Amino acid sequence: MGQTLDNEHDLLTAEIMISKKNLLVIALGFIVTFFVFAFAQEISLCPAYSYSACMGIFNGLAEALLPVFPLFLFSLITYKMREEVYQAWFRFVRWWIPLSVLLIFIAPEYSHDWLYPIEKGSVALLTSAIFLIVSLLIIVAKYISLRRV
After folding, report:
1. Could you tell me where the DSSP H helices lie in the chain?
2. How far apart are CA 88 and CA 91, in angstroms?
3. Of 7, 17, 43, 45, which has the most beta carbons under 10 Å away?
4. What is the pLDDT of residue 2?
């Protein structure tokens, strides 16, 4: 960390960045949480008197955490790369993941339209796929541009 920051923008960016190691630990924690929510029935987290409502909540939370899997994958990929690659990717991550979770939460549980089935599962899959493609493009483009310099 012997670099000096040139301007206020660089200083602000450095203050709101999450380090590579912290992001990796956070993503791993969310993956563990996902599995707890996904397997709530098997580990008997829901009481018998409110079983269906409880399982509905846990299933919805598990679906909302689906974008964390590609986040963890790309955290591992960028961990050994140069800091500039990680920062370029993280500028995208810090707004896309919360937006994805919000879209999944506001999506309806079941679709009433057979032609355009918009529901939590399909929104989670779509946002994860977009995240995967855009992240890959950002990382490869930044990596190639830094190799040329």
Report:
1. 8-16, 20-38, 51-64, 68-79, 83-106, 120-148
2. 5
3. 17
4. 45
CA distance 104 to 83: 31
Enter the tokens of residue 12. 């602000």
Query: At a CB cut-off of 8 Å and minimum separation 6, what does 130 contact?
Result: 96
How far is the C-alpha of 58 from the C-alpha of 107, rounded, in Å? Answer: 16
Q: Which residues of 102-139 are buried (b: 16+ CB within 10 A; e: fewer)?
A: ebbeebeeeeeeeeeeebbbebbeebbeebbeebeebb
**Are the CB atoms for 43 and 81 separated by under 8 Å?**
no
